[in-house]
Design a protein that fits this description.
Elements: E1 10-18, H1 25-33, E2 39-44, E3 50-56, H2 58-71, E4 76-85, E5 93-96
Parallel strand pairs: 2-5
Antiparallel strand pairs: 1-3, 1-4, 2-3
Length: about 100
């Protein structure tokens, strides 16, 4: 069953590049997600980037993204973000393999 979508929820699809694989990036993001009201996933891509898809209120997503940027700054070279309305398809946050 899909999660119910909050009226002001949004979805952020984020691509991180740099030295973001093999450094605990996904696990760190997963740990941060547990501290915020966000759902979605994080996964490694074959091209060396990490993809993050997260849904939540804009304020929760802003805080979540800010902590990732601050704590993982040494590994991140570039961030590409696409913002859309949330679909409500996630019940939790997970690491995808």
């Amino acid at each position: 069953m899909a999660a119910r979508r909050h009226a002001s929820a949004e979805r952020r699809q984020v691509y991180y590049s740099g030295h973001v694989q093999g450094v605990g990036f996904r696990y760190t993001v997963y740990q941060f997600a547990a501290k915020y009201a966000v759902t979605g996933f994080v996964k490694n891509l074959p091209d060396g980037r990490v993809e993050l898809v997260a849904e939540g209120t804009p304020s929760e997503l802003n805080r979540f993204m800010k902590i990732i940027a601050a704590r993982m700054a040494e590994h991140i070279r570039n961030v590409a973000v696409d913002v859309r309305p949330a679909l409500g398809e996630f019940n939790e946050f997970e690491i995808q393999y």
